[in-house]
């Protein structure tokens, strides 16, 4: 289940600002033009308001449980902006329902809260995450009588937003954001980790889960030498 917790990490790093004249709306989703090679779909080159991008998706299961999206242009419902680029990676597990729900709702919540605040901020991103989680919880409650298995479906949620010369990263789950930084002296690209995973294999995460569930001594269990959150 998508869990919104205090451990959601929000990082900001310097990013080259885009020109206002480049503010054109670009959307890349499941219907975007790209190429397919077996179980891999990819797009080698695309443009967003801050530059260029490439994207690839590899299907690991019989049913693709993951979703991803790139939204570039206005980040609110206001003509005045702000403008930027939103990237979302949703690693589903147990089924595709949660990842699809996030893909359909998170960005719209972000635009709504950005319109209210007239700016992107860590608080706006946090509100968008929480509204998405609450919406999915409501969906689970409604579908539980006829589809109880939906309660066992979940997704990680990793988001990056470039706006106003700032890169925001928000993460819930064990996906990871990595920044490639060019080392001019050598020409090498240095990988810089921007987010922290929420994985039961990490002691601090297990401690947080136990503190959030003091009445459940088995909230995290060791199965086959692997720490897991109790299903």
From TrEMBL:
It is an enzyme of class 3 (hydrolase). Its cofactor is Mg(2+); Mn(2+). Residues 52-231 form the PPM-type phosphatase domain. Its EC number is 3.1.3.16. Pfam families: PP2C. Gene3D superfamilies: PPM-type phosphatase domain (3.60.40.10). It comes from the Eukaryota. Residues 1-16 form the signal peptide. One of its GO terms (molecular function) is metal ion binding. Keywords: Hydrolase, Magnesium, Manganese, Metal-binding, Protein phosphatase, Signal. It catalyses: O-phospho-L-threonyl-[protein] + H2O = L-threonyl-[protein] + phosphate; O-phospho-L-seryl-[protein] + H2O = L-seryl-[protein] + phosphate. Belongs to the PP2C family. PANTHER family: PROTEIN PHOSPHATASE. This is protein-serine/threonine phosphatase. It comes from Ananas comosus var. bracteatus (red pineapple).
């Amino acid at each position: 289940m998508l869990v919104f917790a205090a451990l959601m990490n929000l990082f900001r790093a310097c990013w080259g600002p885009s020109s206002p004249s480049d503010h054109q709306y670009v959307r890349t989703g499941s219907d975007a033009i790209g190429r397919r090679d077996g179980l891999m779909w990819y797009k080698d080159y695309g443009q967003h308001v801050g530059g260029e991008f490439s994207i690839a998706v590899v299907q690991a299961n019989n049913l693709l449980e993951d979703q991803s999206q790139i939204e570039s242009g206005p980040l609110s419902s206001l003509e005045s902006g702000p403008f930027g680029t939103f990237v979302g990676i949703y690693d589903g597990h147990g089924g595709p329902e949660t990842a699809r729900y996030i893909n359909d709702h998170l960005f719209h919540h972000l635009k709504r809260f950005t319109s209210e605040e007239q700016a992107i901020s860590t608080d706006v991103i946090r509100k968008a995450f929480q509204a998405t989680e609450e919406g999915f919880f409501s969906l689970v409650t409604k579908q539980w009588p006829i589809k109880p298995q939906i309660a066992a479906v979940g997704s990680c949620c990793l988001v990056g937003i470039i706006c106003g010369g700032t890169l925001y990263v928000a993460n819930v789950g064990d996906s990871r954001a990595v920044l490639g930084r060019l080392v001019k002296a050598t020409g090498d690209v240095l990988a810089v980790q921007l987010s922290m995973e929420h994985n039961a294999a990490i002691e601090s995460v297990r401690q947080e889960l136990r503190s959030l569930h003091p009445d459940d001594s088995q909230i995290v269990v060791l199965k086959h030498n692997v720490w897991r959150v109790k299903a």
